[in-house]
Amino acid sequence: MEKNYVTVEKNAITPPKTIIHKKRKKISKNLAYYLMAIPAVVLFAAFHTYPALQGIYYSFTNWDGLSLVYNFVGFKNYINLFKDTNVLNSYLFTFKFAIVATILVNIFSLAIAVGLNSKIKGKNFFRAVYFLPNVLGVLVVGFIFNYLFANVIPDLGEKMNIGFLSSNILGSESLAWIGILIVAVWQACAFNVILYLSGLQTVPVELYEASSLDGANKWQSFWKITFPVIAPFFTINMVLSMKNFLMVFDQIIALTNGGPGRATESISLLIYTGGFMGGEFAYQSANAVIYFIVIMLISVFQIKVLQKREMNM
Amino acid sequence: MKKTIALLSAGLLSLSIFSGCSKDASSDDGKVKIEFFHYKREAIGSFDELIKKFEKENPNIDIEQKSPPEAETVLKTRIAKRDIPDVIGIGGNSTYKELAKAGVFEDVTKDSNLEKIQPAYIQMLKDVSEQDKVFAIPYAANAVGVIYNKAIFKELGLEVPKTWDEFIATAEKVKSASKIPFYFTFKDAWTTLPSFNALAANTQGDDFYDLLKEGKVEVDTRYKEAAEKFVQLTELGHKDQFGDAYSDGNTAFANGESAMYLQGVWAIPEIQKANPDIELGVFPFPAVNDTAKNKLVSGVDLQLSISSQTKHAKEAKKFVEFLLEEENAKTYIEEQKAFSAQIGIEQKDAILEGLQTNFDSGALTDFPDHYVPVGVALDKNLQTLAQKKDIDSFLDTLQSEWEKVQNRK
Known about the structure:
The structure holds 2 protein chains of 2 kinds. Chain A is mainly α. Chain A is built from 13 helices and no strands. Chain A has helices spanning 2-13, 17-58, 76-83, 85-117, 123-135, 138-159, 176-200, 205-213, 218-229, 231-246, 250-255, 267-277, 281-312. Chain A starts with a helix and ends with a helix. By secondary structure, chain B is an alpha/beta fold. In chain B, the strands form 3 sheets. Chain B has a 6-stranded mixed β-sheet, sandwiched between helices. In chain B, strands 6-7-5-8 form a 4-stranded mixed β-sheet, with helices on both faces. The longest helix of chain B is centred in the first third of the chain and has 19 residues, at 2-20. The radius of gyration of chain B is 23 Å and the shape is globular. Chain B starts with a helix and ends with a helix. At the A-B interface, helix 2, helix 3, helix 6 and helix 12 of A face helix 1, helix 3, helix 4, helix 17 and helix 18 of B.
């Protein structure tokens, strides 16, 4: 930036016409780009980066979210975090949930995407149907499933004499997370199917033709051609869904509110309930800072590992 | 570089437009606008009527009623932004304690309106906020009793129990008649609290709150009896008691699925909505065997505070005093099935007559959960206790959680 600016001024003293013309054109061309980019940067900084920095600042205080005064307490919040079994418990739940959900979502969406990419009748209709969950609000979906789990499924379970289904699974400490998993996976598949579909369309048809000439069956051509070619899409789907599931919040609010007990209390939920309702704003800010670092490390790690795999394939 | 700075500052300037649109308190037509923020969503209709009446009497004041879901959280976030409603109606709970400490409310310790209020409720506000000053005028009180289905009691030939042993015996009789004694709704964690409150308030010991003020937490021993009795009650519920939520319970009880319902009196309007013909009664929760010592858990359900930052203190006070007028207070308690915090205003509803003796004699005690820091999550721990029935681990967790929360301060 600085350099650019100076050269323009220098040239302004003895101006060979063509250069001025070029430079001016360059500035005005760049200006347009700046005008496009800067508003987003400013908004992002104001509504995202600044609050995030504020959160880091508060994490070193003892502010309860309300008081007019607060003191700096150094790393006390961070030290207390590591002694808090509730935090550990919510990390365990969140990771268990996120890992299982990520695997399931990717298996299901890839399978559905392969199906939707083949030459079947009513392909567009099915695509629309599978995309539908993505346009529904999470809370709406949550409340509908809440009703299903509370009324419809127990009735079914009773009729078919399946013990564990005859009562609301969301009320059980050991099963509640599965209820949330079902809802989250069902809804998340919609978006990942779209990503996989766009990936499948990048696979050149000639490769399939060649492989069929070589006598490969469907299974072989999937693993040897389709999967390697869409590897970048696999990477992005894994990273995105892992990140989303690690931040699971809405589904839990709609289904169990973290209960029974603390059985389905995700980290985001703990930060929200503790920070805004529990009067522990600073403490939960510290929790959020740590969690931010954890998610960042996981995402970087995933991208590194999966991209290496892309190369090898 | 200069250009980036220029662009950045231009961006920031344009952002400051947003912060410029803070509300002006008085509206265009010269009326004074008072915002009345409260957490009783069930009472929105009752307040609508009262506000209409007030605005008729005071044409120059415009009352704006607000009662969003999760009202206490909304209130806290607004106060964090220093955007404080003029009149605030919440309960005498830990939110009140926090806000009073933060200096949000006007001090009303010397207000003459307090003379009309039952002293027990004023004391509760002092206890809960751990201050000698009062920052709110108690308006309505609630109570936790045992709501029972009179038809089922008659059918089984049961009488209203007075002691804990009689209470359990009654429930066992209901069970042996293959009916459900209590309809629990543990999917909503908070619904564990009413019965536990009644048990804890009567068994935790009279000096519990005094010790608490000194920073001594002894829940691991003091809550033992309450926890044991609570577990005993959970054995007398129905099969899917962990899967049903509050609204499910109201409907089920209204349809005669259980003989008793362990909820506060606030559930009565909801039950009647589901079945207007149901014959209901309420009796005080028999938490102990010594009937003389059995107190009714009754807390300040709604109290009115005025913001310390309001520009229209006079008008806000006028509205509060209007609500306190006998006729209006009566309208409120009749519609909300609540009790008035004012001396001499009686709840005449036949359903609630079983509790009246406690109000007359003043055998009242506050909700213990209002003294538990929110971070301890008493309700969630009770949910776990109800499922796992592990009393020792419940008491240990509660004690250590409480100490941890104190440590973080």
